[in-house]
Design brief:
heterotrimer; A mainly alpha (221); B alpha/beta (207); C mainly alpha (239); B: 207 residues; alpha/beta; five-stranded parallel sheet; 31% helix; C: 239 residues; mainly alpha
Chain lengths: 221, 207, 239
């Protein structure tokens, strides 16, 4: 079993043993999303208009919630040292942890969002577009968020600082993710938007593992 | 003395602008144990971490069989087994699962025989199915030591291995260390207490 | 006991800055004086916007310096991570707040400029929004570098962040530009100035150069302060 697969399997097993942690994140997603109609008013056409942006934004916030534990748990129990000492690339280890985060957080968000989209008055095609954009976009959130988590490992005010670092870097994904859903009504090409989201994910994949590994080595010093 | 496998020359480490230790040199051959002694803060942990390449030394050379370990850090890490201040155990995994996961995380398939033998050596078989968070500090330390034993690594870097161990466990550690050294392995251990192994050498830090 | 390793470069830097600062200060003041005169007095008021167009002479150079400043942070970050240059960390700490201030000035002047034209204190113009995000990136850098008790850790984390940030900046700018064209109606909500021609260009360049000198001056002065601060920190730890 390769080191990547071993780490991924371990983290997934650990997440499985703490289902409450995932449930809390998803519950936050629902509660935060519901605040918007309550704050803005239930007019159907207004809700349908803001649905894409609201759902993407609250998905972004929900993703951020579980990020500060991504490396902190290993840092606190000493398992991070063992990862730093593993005889295979640390970049892959960082990638494995982000993959686990995505499976446990991003994927459920992508599945849950269309359900909430119904509450905003979206129907078939936009709901599918919502799920598709989140599926392609949330890996970027896990990668960028993972980088922010690695950079703030052991810092004071780590959680808030993590969000401050990660959210501006997630803005392109947010813009294209929300716009992709609206492209269905505006007549633009959904495929092009999804391609851009995929490109953003690939850029993150190409840049963040190295930065994460560098940041994790700093934490080990 | 047999030709040294581990050769450290002129090692210096700095933290926050201060020198923690400077100009350390020593050599260690197969079957040898180096006990690191010194007061708290004298740099024992930093020395172990710099040998593991976790901390970048300010100066000096660490060589294994004549070759600088910095040239191939991945290969060097494959030769090491590490025991830090923290146990490195996942609280929600059982003792056995922790050992299996740790083995797999070294990129090799877990050897069930080695794991069972390691559990037996530290009297952990009755506890093997218990989650790590339910264990006492001494039991967790024993689990971490079992992990080291099961790794099959040639060089053991142990930071305060006797911490939290009762007399029986300390004896188990001595037995395990003795077997490791007899098989040609090397070990460096920081300790306040004499490990009581014949033929071990001392390096005093902060003197 | 003071760490000689650290002192070698900063001592040289101090000698350099002591020599340079007086002349640099004079040049900055003179340049600013000329630039402000040209911008506020000599250049003509705009046909459409009247006197308020003069805000552009502060707004546009601030934007340039804010962007150049982040590029400098990234270069310093690379210098720290790759060559372990001891001064790079301190200079980055000094430069980040200066760059952030230029970004803030750009945002505030942009807001002031827009108010008479559109009656609101803020418009979601592509350039202003990009500058706002750049400002957040600066804030992140400043906060991260100061988030650790051990300064070196903060310096290196911020260095990594600045490199990732500089790669992301074009992406962010591209996506915000695109977002703006998608959502803005065809009406003129752009914060563009009048077309650039010589009576505008010359004062603009003067202001740009004087802002650059000001940036360098502030960074040099602040770097000296950071050197002192770091020395104090080392002395306290060694005591």
């Amino acid at each position: 079993m390769s080191g990547f697969a071993a780490l991924l399997a371990r983290d997934l097993r650990l997440a499985w043993r703490r289902p409450g942690d995932i449930a809390v994140v998803l519950a936050f997603f629902v509660v935060a999303t519901v605040l918007f109609p309550l704050g803005i008013g239930p007019q159907a056409n207004l809700l349908a208009r803001i649905a894409a942006g609201v759902l993407w934004s609250t998905a972004l916030f929900a993703s951020m919630l579980s990020l500060d534990r991504l490396f902190a748990a290993d840092y606190e129990d000493g398992a991070l040292d063992l990862l730093l000492l593993a005889p295979w690339p640390l970049e892959l280890a960082a990638l494995a942890k982000c993959t686990a985060h995505w499976i446990v957080t991003g994927l459920p968000l992508a599945v849950l969002a269309p359900v909430l989209g119904i509450a905003f008055g979206l129907d078939g095609p936009p709901l599918l577009a919502l799920a598709a954009t989140l599926l392609i976009g949330t890996p970027t959130l896990s990668l960028v968020g993972g980088l922010a988590a690695a950079l703030t490992l052991g810092a004071r005010r780590g959680g808030a600082l993590l969000a401050l670092l990660a959210l501006p870097l997630c803005v392109p994904t947010l813009i294209f993710g929300a716009a992709a859903i609206e492209s269905l009504t505006s007549g633009e090409d959904l495929g092009a938007h999804l391609a851009i989201l995929a490109a953003l994910a690939l850029v993150s994949l190409a840049t963040t593992p190295w930065a994460m590994a560098a940041a994790l080595r700093q934490a080990g010093e | 003395m047999a030709s040294p496998l581990l050769d450290v020359t002129d090692l210096s480490c700095r933290r926050g602008g201060r020198a923690v230790f400077e100009g350390l040199s020593f050599a260690l051959g197969a079957g040898e144990l180096l006990a690191l002694v010194g007061r708290n803060g004298s740099g024992k942990t930093t020395l172990l971490r710099s040998l593991a390449l976790l901390v970048r030394p300010a100066a000096g050379r660490i060589a294994w069989q004549g070759a600088d370990v910095a040239d191939d850090p991945e290969a060097w890490r494959g030769r090491l087994a590490w025991l830090g201040h923290l146990d490195g155990l996942k609280a929600d995994l059982t003792v056995r699962e922790n050992l299996v996961a740790a083995a797999r995380l070294r990129g090799v398939p877990a050897d069930p025989a080695a794991i069972e033998a390691a559990l037996a050596a530290f009297d952990l078989l009755p506890l093997a199915h218990r989650a790590a968070r339910t264990l006492s500090a001494g039991q967790r330390r024993r689990t971490a030591l079992a992990r080291v034993r099961a790794s099959g690594a040639a060089v053991w870097l142990l930071d305060e291995p006797l911490n939290a161990l009762d007399a029986a466990a300390q004896q188990a550690l001595r037995d395990v260390l003795g077997q490791h050294l007899a098989a040609g392995g090397l070990a460096l251990a920081s300790t306040h207490v004499d490990l009581g192994l014949p033929g071990s050498r001392r390096l005093e830090l902060g003197a | 006991m003071a760490d000689l390793h650290f002192l070698a470069n900063p001592a040289r830097f101090r000698r350099f800055s002591q020599r340079v600062l007086p002349g640099l200060t004079l040049a900055t003041v003179l340049c600013l004086a000329v630039g402000l005169y040209l911008a506020l007095v000599q250049s003509p008021p705009d046909y459409q916007q009247g006197e308020t167009v003069r805000i552009m002479f502060v707004h546009v150079p601030s934007a340039w310096l804010a962007m150049a400043g982040y590029g400098m942070l990234a270069a310093l970050g690379a210098s720290l991570l790759v060559w372990r240059h001891p001064l790079a960390a301190l200079m980055a700490r000094a430069a980040a707040p200066v760059g952030a201030c230029f970004a803030l000035v750009c945002l505030l002047t942009g807001s002031l400029w827009g108010r008479p034209m559109w009656g609101t204190w803020w418009v979601w113009d592509a350039r202003l929004t990009s500058m706002l995000l750049l400002f957040f990136l600066y804030l992140g850098h400043i906060a991260l570098s100061r988030a650790y008790d051990e300064s070196e850790r903060g310096d290196r984390a911020a260095a990594i962040l600045s490199l990732i940030g500089v790669i992301n900046l074009p992406i962010i700018k591209f996506s915000v530009d695109w977002w703006n064209t998608l959502h803005q109606p065809a009406s003129v909500a752009k914060l563009g100035g009048p077309a650039i021609h010589p009576t505008i260009l010359i004062p603009l360049l003067w202001m740009a150069v004087s802002f650059l000198l000001l940036f360098v001056l502030l960074v040099l002065v602040r770097t000296e302060t950071e050197i002192d601060r770091r020395r104090l920190e080392i002395a306290e730890q060694g005591a």
